[in-house]
């Protein structure tokens, strides 16, 4: 038998994610990861898939939030496959398809950006002269109540999306919802639910590394925190920051919730995760009961008075996901058909990259997620879950502080370790994975991505968060708004200069037109009134199998 056939036969062995009894449960030795890598089939590794969802605010040339409606030229946000809105009418979400390589995913994301930039620059489309804001933390914001909610038409599902956003505004404030980021969707064929949940547990343990390496939101426009306590330090007039911060977006000012902080969601199995989520979706919460479903005028305040209105309200650095069927609840889809992919939710927009994320970052994410799958993954505990939350907040606010320590769970106890030492250990464990993926695909792209991370460990001043603060101080008198406005202008100019054919423009125009027709068809097909539809959709029986 040839060496290649022997290797391929080894690849065909079943992946098993179990801790060797002779090693500590969180050991990150290269031998363990390499051994488990050999148990993945060649087809599995070649079947790795990723997709990108990128949020961006629309801003005026002055750096203020654009308050215009979602441009009609972009299509209907309810039904367009690649261009929708997130929380606000002013907040675009650009979505790629599923791709077999980072280059393909980023190529599609760039083309979507090109189309959007042209639409925003064309006054004939009703948007006026607007830009995509390239920072995760928002541009200059108006008063909370004047930030426009996303609108999705007259259908019941469209109304539900808007009412859900109204509820988020009542619960957390509209300003918090204008934060933007990158979601990275990743899958590997042939994985069982338990393997995906093992990956998720390790991701949550080690995601501080992603905040440290790629966090790019150490400062914010003062309008974001106007009228509320924040703990930030002034940098310039109208700008606040954390000197050692990496990602304010992922810290206490970002996607945080007192109510959700009471949840200790377990990721030990699909059953435990599903039970935790079911409780949050069916348990009334006193503060939300006080808000009520409707106000005195009969207008809807929120979809439900439960701790979570719907599954999407659950914040987290990563989620198990499954494509849903029409009208299906996401939790039902997960429970019935299992995990299909994971959604990484902790990535900031990189303001130094025109489309918010670069190829080296996506390849590092591939390596990191593969390592999370292959490394031993003991079950989580309430004590560890609480420690992970503290690690996230500490890294977000102080991540670059020399000597900063995090809490690491080992052998049933928690001990403090230096962040950069733990980070270096994880990065070193990625070396055999980068070599294996480069050997599989040819070239050295994964080793180059890993090399960039290794250089950042040696020179923290090169991290995006450090570069943002340095550029603000050096060229913009410490102004966050001036810095991001300049970066947004530069990104817009470069995207508009890229080649763009009449055929590409026509293809996107067709997608926009078809999306509008699909929305109209959905509206015409509705037969029930909204309240009947709302009660039927939120029926707890829709959450179980």
Care to give the gist of this entry?
The protein has 545 residues and is of the alpha+beta class.
Describe this protein's structure.
The chain is α+β, with helices and mostly antiparallel strands and 545 residues long. Helix content is 44%, strand content 11%. It contains 19 helices and 12 strands. The strands form 3 sheets. Strands 1, 2, 3, 4, 5, 9 and 10 form a 7-stranded antiparallel beta sheet that branches. Strands 6-8-7 form a 3-stranded antiparallel beta sheet, with no helix packed on it. β2 (83-85) and β3 (91-95) form a beta hairpin. α11 packs across α15. The model is unreliable at 1-28 (pLDDT under 50).
Give keywords.
globular; seven-stranded antiparallel β-sheet; three-stranded antiparallel β-sheet; 19 helices; 44% helix; alpha+beta; disordered N terminus; single chain; 545 residues
């Amino acid at each position: 038998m040839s060496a290649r056939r022997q290797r391929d036969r080894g690849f065909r062995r079943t992946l098993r994610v179990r801790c060797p009894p002779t090693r500590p449960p969180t050991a990150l030795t290269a031998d363990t990861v390499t051994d488990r890598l050999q148990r993945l089939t060649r087809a599995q590794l070649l079947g790795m898939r990723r997709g990108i969802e990128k949020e961006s605010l629309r801003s005026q040339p002055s750096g203020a939030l654009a308050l215009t409606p979602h441009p009609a030229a972009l299509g209907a946000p309810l039904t367009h496959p690649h261009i929708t809105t997130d929380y606000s009418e002013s907040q675009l979400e650009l979505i790629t398809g599923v791709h077999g390589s980072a280059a393909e995913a980023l190529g599609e994301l760039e083309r979507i950006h090109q189309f959007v930039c042209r639409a925003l620059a064309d006054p004939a489309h009703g948007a006026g002269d607007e830009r995509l804001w390239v920072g995760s933390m928002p541009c200059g914001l108006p008063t909370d109540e004047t930030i426009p909610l996303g609108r999705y038409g007259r259908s019941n599902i469209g109304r539900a999306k808007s009412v859900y956003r109204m509820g988020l505004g009542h619960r957390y404030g509209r300003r918090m919802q204008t934060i933007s980021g990158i979601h990275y969707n990743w899958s590997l064929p042939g994985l069982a639910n338990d393997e995906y949940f093992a990956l998720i547990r390790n991701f949550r343990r080690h995601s501080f590394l992603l905040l440290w390496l790629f966090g790019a939101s150490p400062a914010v426009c003062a309008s974001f925190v106007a009228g509320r306590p924040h703990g930030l330090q002034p940098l310039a007039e109208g700008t606040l920051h954390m000197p050692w911060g990496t990602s304010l977006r992922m810290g206490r000012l970002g996607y945080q919730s007192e109510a959700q902080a009471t949840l200790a969601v377990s990721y030990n199995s699909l059953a435990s995760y599903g039970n935790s989520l079911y409780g949050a979706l069916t348990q009334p919460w006193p503060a939300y009961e006080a808000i009520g479903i409707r106000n005195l005028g009969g207008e809807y305040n929120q979809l439900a008075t439960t701790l979570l209105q719907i599954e999407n309200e659950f914040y987290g650095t990563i989620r198990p996901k499954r494509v849903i069927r029409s009208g299906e609840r996401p939790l039902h889809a997960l429970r019935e058909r299992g995990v299909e992919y994971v959604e990484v939710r902790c990535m900031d927009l990189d303001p130094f990259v025109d489309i918010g994320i670069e190829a080296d970052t996506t390849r590092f994410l591939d390596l990191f997620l593969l390592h999370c799958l292959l490394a031993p993954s003991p079950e989580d505990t309430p004590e560890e879950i609480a420690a992970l939350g503290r690690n996230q907040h500490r890294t977000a606010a102080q991540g670059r502080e020399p000597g900063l320590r995090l809490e690491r769970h080992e052998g049933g106890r928690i001990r403090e370790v230096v962040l950069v030492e733990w980070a270096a250990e994880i990065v070193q464990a990625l070396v055999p994975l980068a070599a294996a993926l480069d050997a599989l695909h040819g070239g050295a792209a994964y080793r180059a991505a890993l090399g960039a991370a290794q250089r950042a460990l040696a020179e923290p001043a090169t991290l995006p968060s450090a570069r943002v603060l340095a550029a603000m101080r050096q060229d913009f008198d410490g102004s966050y708004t001036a810095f991001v406005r300049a970066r947004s202008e530069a990104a817009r100019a470069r995207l508009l200069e890229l080649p763009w054919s009449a055929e590409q423009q026509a293809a996107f125009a067709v997608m926009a037109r078809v999306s509008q027709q699909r929305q109209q068809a959905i509206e015409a097909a509705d037969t029930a009134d909204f309240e009947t539809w709302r009660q039927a959709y939120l029926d707890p029986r829709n959450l179980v199998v």
